[in-house]
């Protein structure tokens, strides 16, 4: 039997960049094939060549034994190739069936009228054949993301797809929806369909794919069967060298007190208390980690410390000065750097170029501002130096922030904040959604800062990250620290209990009043533990798993990672 | 709070009127008219009697139909443009240009003459449609191909027509008002056109593939693009249809009295803007737009008749009613929702 898809020596050049360099890819029919690689490795470009969005510079596309040349996605669709984009292409106010048939509506009355009965019938028939539970008359806006993804799959099947390309299919799904998607994969491959999915998550590729092809810098590093490879091997293929699992930490040399927070209480936007009496002390040359399930007050804690939200009660003092009444600008000028949780919302101005983004927060700095005007030459040099030192790709200060991949956006923000020469860095989820190589890079930079005698407050829901980097580790639950532990000796089980609001010996720390919430959270931990085991398969507690995972999904997904032991 | 009017069943139109908002408008209007009829016939000498006499007279009906035609037709056109993602606030300009060109061409052909068997006045009618469609086409190219701001380009369409039509009239006739043709088209023709256009528009929007594509182009153009339908072609079609329908409306307005009046705001007098109000009020539903257009035109016609009966109703106040209504509707009902991508330019990724 012919392979479903055979990409033979595909090269794709863009001006100045070789996105794919002589890539061969053979995908057998009825298989699930993962295309694994870091951000910018050329996965999406390769699939866009297969889908007809780009013509290859060199090489041939062979579909089911026939060489093809696609000028547009139309041609690819006609050849039985369907693509499901990461961001769904659905019209929200229209119904499921209207979306499925959009552009290929069955018609009556000489082509004038849409044959609704036929359209609905076709959608129901497809939906039943593949065991999708989709109501054809529901509006897209009213159904869950998982169902929307199935509608996208139905769209490609309706157009006769034999090969389905999915771009980062799990990025927006909850763990339960991910399981359901794997079920859909099984259903589809049983009926002879072939699936190629793009991913940068090791665990996902291992658990869902039959075969895995790893791309790096536009080259095919190799194709392996998923049951004959380990995470470490895959990670090394992706990154091109052995990945350091434990960052090399040096003994801590705590210096003077940089940050002191006393009995801090902070309300969220709705006026509900999100931080309920947190006290901490942070010294120079120290990393203080805060671990916890997302949404337990971490965001408000970081905002209160960095001057973006006024505390309801308590004090924050920085190098001995109370900061409560100081503006955000004063916080920045006094050397407090901030890596925000949502980089696209708060870290960057997406339509600005990197030069404009490089001076955000420094726009009053005499280095860049003269008589109320920006010195764009200096700003440009500054952007170029960040790009160079932090390996931001593409290395061009003129590109807009939105055209960068997530990992490169994050490296740029980290670079900008660290170049302020701060005394304190507040880093919230600094590697969320960042690929393995960039994660390692950011971790190294954080540790360098620590070695230089800076203070770092690291807030993350990735347990391995906070545990591996911190000198002291606090666990936050419902706005208060349930414990401050030594990350070198504490077990993940103990941290898990603290994150669920219980003390290490199993008792609730905050008394009977929170007991219900506590046991509820405990259930979640146990349940997701099981999920995590299913997912991870071979080895436990490997930080690479988490490092490779972008945390774009909701809380549940995050919880899953945190309690992954 | 649920609007009680929304639950009243409407026998014939039930299929056409899906939204609660529209049901309330229809039921409310019919109810008010019914009350007026009862009051008017019970107390014929009261103000209510006078108003009832006016509202239910054929001359008011004729004048309502005449005033409603441009509002409803331009409103229907506006729906096609806006549903596709192009906000056409130049409807007023399209009405003005077609009103002038229809009269001009009819007078050039000469009343009493015919071209290919088509009487001059109807030749003028068609010419008005062509002129409006051409201007809409230019607007479409500027907005869709050259990515101009739709609001600015729409205002330009209005200002160009507002200046050009009276100027041309002055060039050809020595005054901003054209002489009367001495012939006109009866309002019944236009009433029929309005009703037919409403029904056809509703059907085209809701039952044809084109209607679905139009909606997708205005809501999520990328979704339409990825299934292989050209977004700019769909949008051009939507804008051109707004030109065709506005052209019918503008020509109808001028030819129903046989003259183009170019002084001040011209004879169109903001009907293009009221058309926008009408389709927003009707929540992009042609049937609702028809109802809103008749309501606004009816108020205007009633006001004119009241003046004639000696009631000192300030006409300028009556003319603000549509705008006040739309602000109330937008603020209180809040059901009107612009297409998600309306006003946005679209560029394919390739």
- Assembly of the depicted chains: heterodimer
Number of DSSP-assigned strands of chain A: 24
| Sequence stretches where pLDDT stays below 50 over 5 or more residues of chain B | none
Spatial extent as radius of gyration of chain A: 25 Å
Number of helices of chain B: 13
Taking the sheet with the most strands of chain B, its summary is: 2 strands, antiparallel
What keyword list fits this structure?
heterodimer, A: alpha/beta, six-stranded mixed sheet, 20 helices, 35% helix, B: 350 residues, mainly alpha, two-stranded antiparallel ribbon, 69% helix, globular
How would you describe the overall organization of this protein?
The complex is a heterodimer of chains A (565) and B (350). Helices cover 35% and strands 24% of the residues of chain A. Chain A has 565 residues and is α/β, with parallel strands linked by helices. In chain A, strands 6-9-10-3-11-12 form a six-stranded mixed β-sheet, with helices on both faces. The longest helix of chain A is centred in the last third of the chain and has 22 residues, at 515-536. The relative contact order of chain A is 0.10. Chain B has a domain at 70-297 and 322-332. Helices cover 69% and strands 1% of the residues of chain B. Chain B has 13 helices and two strands; from the N terminus they run H-H-H-H-E-E-H-H-H-H-H-H-H-H-H. In chain B, strands 1-2 form a two-stranded antiparallel sheet. In chain B, helix 3 (58-83) crosses helix 11 (271-281) and helix 3 (58-83) packs antiparallel against helix 12. The chains are: A alpha/beta (565), B mainly alpha (350). The A-B interface holds A 53, 72-74, 77, 85, 89-94, 98-99, 102-105, 107, 112-114, 155, 159 and B 207-209, 212-213, 215-216, 219-220, 222-224, 226-229, 340, 349-350.
